[in-house]
Amino acid sequence: MKNVRVFFEKHGSCKYISHLDTNRVMLRAIGKSRLNIWYTEGFNRHAYITFALPLSLGFASTCESMDFRILDDDEDLSSVPERLNACLPEGIRVYRCIESVHKPADIESAEYDITLEDTSDNISAKELSDKLNAFLELPEILVDKKTKKGMKQVDLKQYILDFRMKDPEKTSFTLTLPAGATLNINPNLLINAFAEYVSAELYADITRTGVYIKGGEDFA
Amino acid sequence: MYPKEIEKLLLKVQKPGRYVGGELGEVIKDKRDVDVRFAFCFPDTYEIGMSHLGIKILYSLFNEKPYIWCERVFAPWIDMEAQMREHDIPLYALESGDPISDFDFIGFTLQYELSYTNVVNMLDLGGIPLLSKDRHGLEHIVVAGGPCACDPEPIADFIDIFFLGDGEEVDLEVIELYRECKREGRSRAEFLRLAANIKGVYVPSLYDISYNEDGTINAITPLDGAPEVIEKRVMMDMDESFYPDNFVVPNIEIVHDRAVEEIFRGCIRGCRFCQAGFLYRPVREKSVECISRQCHALCRNTGYDEVSLSSLSSSDYSQVVPLLKELNSWAKPENVSLSLPSLRVDGFTDDILDEIKTVRKSGLTFAPEAGSQRLRDAINKNVREDELINTCRVAFEGGYTTVKLYFMIGLPTETMDDVADIANLGRKVVDTFYSAENRPKGKSPRVTVSASSFVPKPFTPFQWEPQDSMDTLREKQRHIKESITTKKITFNYHDSDTSFLEAVFARGDRRLGKAVLEAHKRGMRFDGWSDCFSLQNWLEVFEDCGIDPTFYANRRRSFDEILPWDHLDYGIKKSFLKRECERAYNSETSPNCREKCLGCGAAKYGGGVCFEKR
Prior knowledge:
The structure holds 2 protein chains of 2 kinds. Chain A has helices spanning 19-33, 80-85, 125-137, 187-198; strands spanning 2-10, 49-51, 60-70, 92-99, 107-118, 142-147, 150-155, 162-167, 172-178, 202-213. By secondary structure, chain A is α+β, with helices and mostly antiparallel strands. Chain A folds into 2 domains: 2-100, Pseudouridine synthase I, catalytic domain, N-terminal subdomain (Alpha-Beta Plaits, 2-Layer Sandwich), CATH 3.30.70; 105-216, Alpha-Beta Plaits (2-Layer Sandwich). Among the domains of chain B are: 4-231, Rossmann fold (3-Layer(aba) Sandwich); 235-360, Transcription Regulator spoIIAA (2-Layer Sandwich). In chain B, helix 10 (320-331) runs parallel beside helix 11 (350-356) and helix 13 packs parallel to helix 14. Chain B is globular, with a radius of gyration of 24 Å. The chains are: A alpha+beta, B alpha/beta. The A-B interface holds A 12-14, 16-18, 20-21, 24-25, 27-33, 39, 43-46, 57-58, 87-91, 117, 119, 203 and B 1-2, 8, 10-11, 16-17, 19-24, 249, 251-253, 257, 299-305, 335, 360-361.
């Protein structure tokens, strides 16, 4: 039995599949692909799959991962992406399958490509970019964050691990935030705070582009 | 692919996955390569519509033809509708993202009367003229089928063509005719006139209805050479009948999220309240071999690990145990589970339990429909109390603790004693649990008693009966509640308000079209959803339109009255329905189709159960 991790992209109409539904889509794909994977042995036997870092509804991603166990030690992992892709909707594409290296708990941060737009078109993209730069220069960015123990006020400023404006003409930028089971900051927290700061309704096109462990190494 | 403009709206609405398509199994064609575009509209949400078997069959059937592209359209939920109206986004089909006004056919399936306002609202959202008479040119042919097409008069003003009976052949014949007419440059009127001569096609605009002073119908007169009587279509050989080997597999969870295999059409029972039991006669079964092959292909192609065997009464399938054994020969090793809904109390045996117990052990549901034996006889339910109690004992000894019992109140001939017997029967089931030898130790039973309000329907022996008034129904609900003395029983009941509106439309005539249009203008839709339904608003609409809804819901018709659906022929003779109604008054049961033929008229189709050896 091998512990296997597949990496996949999620985009287009599949951005709107919630985490729970993604789980169901994957279970059906595995069933249809007839991959010989490990099933739970309880009363409701089902294929055993886990996801290292769930993705929010509405986000695209180039770096999602899913873990399962393959029963046959001699299984050729390089054929797995193709077999699964034949059984998945267009918006989910598996591009790699490896024996898992890291543990999901090792994940420390994630990177996002974000493009913002004022839905009412009152603020131009250039202006929005300038305002964003100014916003991130504020001494603190206080927001209410839902935690397991209720609402808590946090300063997001300390959590911005990296920020790079890629194209000020489009308000396109890259943002790295803490991610994982212990501390997870959703980029929407920052975007909502910024929307309040500029008093506008913003549309955010968000793609997760990287998941990292300690030291910025790719999660594998 | 969804239209680009909606991307920014999607994250503002609940369940955006409803509006984007892109599922495995969806059919994408190049619109330049097809002659006919068909928008298959389900007048309810995505999760409901995608669970419906008819749409799956017809979607695959149409798309098998290279010259047709059939796409799916669902009613947007109110939050999405608000966004679409605000941003001027017309109702679009999920596959292409094109507005439905780009389509040749806009087809609706009519599963329940309370979806009529959604039909009109969807036309409106699509920018299609609402009334049939306002649509010109050979485009936007609005068609509808499904059970409510058996009395389609309340929405006859909005629909160009109704399909009666099984759709597999007649739909394609009409599409083919349209294609010819388009090629030959014929007019819309010519096309409709030609279509009216295809068996199973009802073009309501070709019929004139006149009324008597008392509001009843005087005459139904065909115009322009349309047939006097429109006969339903029937697929007689179910093994040869088209069945999809793949479904569009939704990316978000839907109501019935599993593979579905139809095992037979029709029902042998003839329960007198049940419209489906008469509309779909005669019973036509698929063979074990055919069902197994189709199920296997479906599971392989969709990836579903659960398959539901669908019919009006699964345990009446003549080979039910051999079927389950055959299915389990591949289903078990492939981790596929079987579910067998619509089990009858008297059809639940140890053998069946053994075969389906391998699956999830959820609760069991039975529908005795009435509390007393006398009333069960009057409605011809033909389930005896001792059978129900024995079945529950088998289930409890098999490890089940939860039983749901479905009843109806307001049935013809019902007395308050019959109503109290609903509670009594629930109590007897609870007692059965405690007297069962091998009951689950340390657990207590949960019995749910549900009571819905009876709605008299066309083509049933009760089609002439009045519905109980809402006050009477509420009194009966109270009476059950007060008669329940144990906490092991949970009592649920359906709102009598929606049942009243359902009763108005179920046996309505063409004059109700005015009310449907007015209700739409006042923003009413999703009447089947308690979030949206308001009886008060409807009563105002009726009042303002000069319509008395009780004329339709609560009036007893005489046997010789001309009924709004008298020109539609579902193979069931009126004389037979009358005979059955009179037997109900005497609390007399009738044998089922396998026991004895009662001469209902369905034998004229020349097959099915009518010609089985008895």
